[in-house]
Write a structure and sequence with these properties.
The structure holds 2 protein chains of 2 kinds. By secondary structure, chain A is an all-beta fold. Chain A has no helices and 11 strands. In chain A, β4 and β5 form a beta hairpin. The model of chain B has no long low-confidence stretch (mean pLDDT about 90). In chain B, a hairpin with a 5-residue loop joins β5 and β6. Classes of the chains: A mainly beta, B mainly beta.
């Protein structure tokens, strides 16, 4: 298995809703990432987990709450989002924090906040 | 700190024509270099990477990139493009030995291949 699987692929939520994005990989990678990508822009790093511990939080608002239940799973809990949070949310993984190779990305969750 | 500049935001080209997507980087330390491709409504796929050794790297679908240290460039080329190559292409750099959050992306180049 050489994939990063993200669910759901599309999500529409109201500003008062609570929802979660899920990411799963079975490549034995020990670093996992959440990125946010707005239209026609490059991905922006949000969070990094290394060996299931949060190691980087790029000053992301608290309405986004990451969770890493085990080495294969990464969640992003969403609460009280704003319309400007609408974007493609990408999960990625890599073997280790200092791995020389590239990251493996999932296909993303297209989030629309109404 | 590292930075990446993709000089062209859009590159239109006809099918079977050659193409070059330009990428320049800035860094005071050694870096790894990557090209990612993003097809419409999809995530990013690693196209090719330069880690060390031969400065010319190739992908399985005919793309190649050459690391030029003196010009701090990592341009992507393909001698003959197909309609299916239409996508957004991102150049990225990562500091050698850097932390896991240190993958820096350029702003992307949209390649549009026309029949």
């Amino acid at each position: 298995d050489t994939e990063v699987t993200q669910t759901p692929k599309h999500l529409v939520m109201g500003m008062t809703n609570k929802k979660s994005l899920k990411c799963e990989q079975h490549m034995g990678h020990r670093a996992m990432y959440w990125y946010k990508q707005k239209a026609k822009k490059p991905p922006e790093l949000m969070f990094v987990y290394s060996y299931e511990k949060l190691s980087i939080n790029e000053s992301v608002p608290s309405r986004f709450s990451p969770e890493c239940p085990n080495s294969s799973l990464l969640n992003l809990h969403l609460h009280a989002l704003q319309p400007e949070d609408s974007a493609l949310y990408l999960c990625a993984s890599s073997q280790d924090e200092r791995q020389a190779g590239g990251y493996t990305f999932g296909s993303g969750t297209r989030l629309t906040v109404v | 700190a590292q930075s990446v500049t993709q000089l062209d935001s859009q590159v239109p080209v006809f099918e079977e024509a050659p193409v070059e997507l330009r990428c320049n980087y800035s860094s005071s330390v050694s870096v790894y270099l990557f090209w990612y491709v993003q097809y419409p409504n999809q995530g990013l796929q690693l196209l090719l990477k330069y880690l060390s050794g031969s400065t010319l790297v190739e992908s399985i679908n005919g793309f190649e990139a050459e690391f030029n240290k003196s010009q701090t460039s990592f341009h992507l080329r393909k001698p003959s493009v197909h309609i299916s190559d239409t996508a957004e292409y991102f150049c990225a750099v990562k500091k050698v030995g850097g932390s896991q959050g240190n993958l820096i992306f350029g702003k992307g180049t949209k390649l549009s291949v026309k029949p």
